[in-house]
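Deliverable D5.2: sample structural annotation.
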Amino acid sequence: MGELAIIVKSKAQPGKRDEIKALYDELMAPRAMENDSQEVVVWCADQHDPDTFYLFEIYSDFQAMGANAQADFFAEYMGKAGPLLAGEPDVAMTTPLWSKGV
């Protein structure tokens, strides 16, 4: 299992969560599928708040996450998704110690 897990909680502007998900599907998901250093990626819609979503990722190491964060495709995604967000995401950087099914 990887050395770094990222948990991101974000809130979209009212009614914009689906637009953000579509941008993620277009710009980020294909890169995640090709990136062996990104071991797990889960995009989750909150069941109680139609504007909140979560992203959970496990990376093989901190450098792999940093490379993604500095990539052109991430800048393009944030340039398009950023204006649809209702504030800054809450980001937790963690160390995975146990999991099932990973």
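Annotation notes: The mean pLDDT is 95. The helical segments are 17-34, 62-69, 72-81.
The annotation will be released with the project's public dataset once the embargo ends.
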